[in-house]
């Protein structure tokens, strides 16, 4: 496997809707060969496995234990900058390029990037001092994988710049410090 794809934190587009119309929450995949009652399932059982980009792949078990056939390729998650670009987050893409942080971000493991919307702040992605821009971007990178469906009001997270972000959840949305999350679970 290419090293650029060996990044479990770079999951793409969990915001895509699944077959029931709900937001995806498949970032954790659990496959069990036992039923709820503890009995083994029959041979030739098929498992649905959720891969990157919210694609479901059927896997056939030959002997109740061993995967015998995968009916479609698992979709690899994108690295952070590819996921950001694919979601048309243009000001964040420009800011990462200007600060030369894209290649660094793509090699970090198990992080979450909370991309600021620079348009609302008068375009600092193009005008800000490079040190200030780099500081702002690193403040928005959490040191662990975080998905909105597992957030709780009052949770705190450490950033790669060793600062703290606190989560607030209320009827108007999810906030990191005082900034409202607009696009969730892109990666």
UniProtKB/TrEMBL annotation:
InterPro entries in alphabetical order: FAS1_dom_sf (IPR036378), FAS1_domain (IPR000782)
Pfam families in alphabetical order: Fasciclin (PF02469)
Top-level division of the source organism's lineage: Eukaryota
Domain FAS1, first and last residues per copy: 76-187
Name of the protein in question: FAS1 domain-containing protein
Lineage of the organism: Eukaryota, Fungi, Dikarya, Ascomycota, Pezizomycotina
């Amino acid at each position: 496997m290419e090293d650029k794809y060996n990044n479990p934190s770079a999951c793409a587009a969990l915001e895509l809707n699944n077959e029931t119309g709900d937001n995806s929450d498949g970032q954790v995949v659990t496959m069990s060969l036992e039923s709820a009652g503890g009995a083994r399932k029959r041979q030739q059982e098929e498992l649905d496995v959720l891969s990157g980009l919210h694609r479901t792949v059927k896997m056939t078990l030959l002997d109740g234990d061993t995967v015998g056939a995968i009916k479609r390729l698992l979709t690899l998650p994108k690295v952070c900058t590819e996921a950001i670009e694919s979601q048309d987050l243009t000001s964040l893409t420009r800011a990462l390029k200007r600060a030369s942080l894209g290649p660094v971000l793509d090699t970090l493991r198990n992080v979450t990037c909370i991309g600021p919307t620079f348009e609302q702040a008068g375009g600092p992605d193009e005008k800000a001092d490079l040190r200030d821009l780099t500081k702002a971007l690193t403040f928005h990178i959490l040191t662990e994988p975080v998905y909105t469906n597992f957030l709780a009001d009052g949770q705190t997270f450490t950033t790669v710049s060793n600062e703290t972000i606190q989560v607030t959840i209320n009827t108007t949305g999810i906030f990191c410090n005082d900034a409202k999350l607009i696009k969730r679970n892109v990666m």
